[in-house]
Amino acid sequence: MKNIDTAFRHVRGFTMLVIIGCILISCFSLYKSFSLVSQMQNKVYILANGKALEAYASDRKDNIPVEARDHVKTFHKLFFTLDPDDKVIKSNVTKALYLADDSAKRVYDDLKENGYYSGIISGNVSQTIQIDSVTIDLNNYPYGFRCYATQNIIRTTSIAHRNLITEGNLRNVSRSDNNPHGFLIERWNTIENRDISTENRK
Length: 202
Hints:
By secondary structure, the protein is an alpha+beta fold.
């Protein structure tokens, strides 16, 4: 009877160890599975030129400086890149105005009223812009910015280079196809816009 009782206790102890081991293994497997699924959800694969590129999801706060600078650059490139074609001008300016508030619309209306765009079309003038740098103040919201750029005004006989400095604020808005960065430029104004040099075209 003692041997039977001892054997029963051994079997019961072994069975309990097996059950506890199974529970621990199951819990560990579930934890690793959820962890792996979470990691996979933060990865995105992009197909470019027949190659799969891996991208990682991250919080927006990690990318605010980069996205803010790109938003400001995109707005200035669209607003100041002009060709002697009414459709091109309207297309670029319309895209730019989605990125800013009515302060940019007022500048556009003033330029249009003063015949600036008509002069570009009639004079076959092209205008390009090179963004030199953009500074963003992330310590205060809305984020203040200042953009330093060089305008190139290409005429039939000459190319004029102008120094352009603008400033404004950036406010968070919803992302959309027309505004992928989710920022809106407010209180945009020009601090400086002066001639640097002029060169004759050959």
